[in-house]
Amino acid sequence: MKKLTSNEELILTVEELYERCFYWQDILGLQVWEFEIKIVDGDDLHDSMADIVWVLSKRQAVIRILEAEAYRKKKFSVLQDMERSLVHELVHATFAGLLSNEQDSAMWIMEEQAVNTTTNALIKLQRKRWGDPLPC
Ligand SMILES: [Zn+2]
């Protein structure tokens, strides 16, 4: 895998996202979950880069990731990294049922911070492991 810096664009196809999803499901212990992944345009996601809606009792979820052109138009402060968005939503799934669905609550803000911290740590570890050149 190509080494990525912390703020480099990573645009993936739906097929590539499914591959990455299976990989991360295994790491996060989400193997029994069924994820549907969609790349959607800007109108569907409002101010988000991605989102997830789950049916906990069925361990099923739909993850929606903003398509590249719409992402660029929204002028987020970081370049798009679809794998990071995917992992962020999968980390939410690991907390499914525990946390708030009210997006304005203080609990939700803390959840977002915890999910971001965990996602960044996972991505950093994974890219450090697989992205570093092999020793000669
Ligand atoms: Zn989130």
Features:
alpha+beta; Collagenase (Catalytic Domain); 3-stranded mixed β-sheet; 3 strands; binds zinc ion
Model description:
- By secondary structure, the protein is an alpha+beta fold.
- The protein has a single domain, classed as Collagenase (Catalytic Domain), CATH 3.40.390.
- It has helices at 14-28, 42-45, 68-74, 82-94, 106-131, and strands spanning 34-40, 50-55, 60-66.
- A three-stranded mixed β-sheet has the order 1-3-2.
- It is globular and about 35 Å long.
- Bound molecules: zinc ion.
- Residues 88, 92, 112, 115 line the site of zinc ion.
Strand fraction band?
5-15%
Low-confidence region ranges: none
Measured between the Cα atoms of the first and last residue, the distance is 17 Å
Counted by DSSP, the helix tally is 5
Reported CATH architecture: 3-Layer(aba) Sandwich
Instruction: State the domain count.
Output: 1
**Under CATH, the topology is which?**
Collagenase (Catalytic Domain)
What radius of gyration results from the CA coordinates?
15 Å
Q: Report the major sheet.
A: 3 strands, mixed
Topology:
Blueprint: H1 14-28, E1 34-40, H2 42-45, E2 50-55, E3 60-66, H3 68-74, H4 82-94, H5 106-131
Parallel strand pairs: 1-3
Antiparallel strand pairs: 2-3
